[in-house]
């Protein structure tokens, strides 16, 4: 793979070392290995930094149907209206859940009165605006006993 195809850039070029003398000094065949080791260590620390980032917005958790999160107080559903952002939903209700092995990508919140809030997000970002029927926005709707309830 060429370095121009990688998502990051290198400031060195790996070339095969010749046996013998290079520019008046003995060739050091391990210098390529040293550079690769340094690159590996740099990538390792970068990956760990991203893995330990606790400020990443995560609006849902993956769960099995037998282990869904506890229900939310029914009165909190009133805070979900057109124009609210996904970040505000998570602040008001906590993280939603998404069933394991379901590929539709709908985030759910369950309320104590039997309703469920469904959010079909496009970017899963905190600033994404929720709407009921507007293109370019995440869609949301409530369901209770398999009946769709129009949000206010």
Description:
By secondary structure, the protein is an alpha/beta fold. It contains two helices and nine strands, in the order ββαβαββββββ. Strand 1 and strand 2 (25-26) form a beta hairpin. The mean pLDDT is 77.
How many discrete domains? 2
> What oligomeric state do these chains adopt?
single chain
Listing every helix as H and every strand as E from the N terminus to the C terminus, the arrangement reads: EEHEHEEEEEE
Helix content: 10-25%
Mean pLDDT: 77
The global form is elongated
- How many strands in all? 9
Percent of residues in beta strands? 15-25%
Largest sheet: 5 strands, mixed
Q: Give the radius of gyration.
A: 26 Å
Derived from helix and strand composition plus strand pairing, the structural class reads alpha/beta
H/I helix tally: 2
Which segments are poorly predicted (pLDDT under 50) over 5 or more consecutive residues?
Answer: none
Distance between the termini: 53 Å
Give me the secondary-structure topology.
Layout: E1 21-22, E2 25-26, H1 31-51, E3 60-63, H2 86-93, E4 96-99, E5 106-110, E6 115-120, E7 130-131, E8 138-144, E9 147-149
Parallel strand pairs: 3-4, 7-8
Antiparallel strand pairs: 1-2, 5-6, 6-8, 8-9
């Amino acid at each position: 793979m060429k370095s121009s195809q990688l998502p990051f850039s290198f400031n060195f070029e790996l070339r095969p070392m010749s046996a013998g003398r290079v520019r008046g000094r003995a060739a050091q065949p391990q210098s390529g290995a040293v550079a690769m080791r340094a690159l590996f260590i740099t990538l390792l620390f970068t990956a760990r930094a991203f893995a330990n980032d606790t400020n990443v917005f995560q609006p849902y958790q993956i769960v099995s149907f037998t282990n869904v999160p506890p229900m939310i107080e029914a009165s909190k559903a009133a805070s979900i209206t057109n124009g609210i952002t996904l970040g505000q939903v998570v602040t008001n209700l906590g993280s939603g859940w998404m069933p394991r092995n379901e590929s539709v990508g709908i985030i759910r919140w369950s309320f104590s009165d039997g309703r469920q809030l469904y959010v079909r997000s496009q970017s899963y970002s905190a600033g994404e605006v929720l709407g009921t029927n507007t293109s370019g926005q995440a869609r949301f709707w409530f369901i209770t006993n398999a009946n769709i309830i129009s949000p206010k």
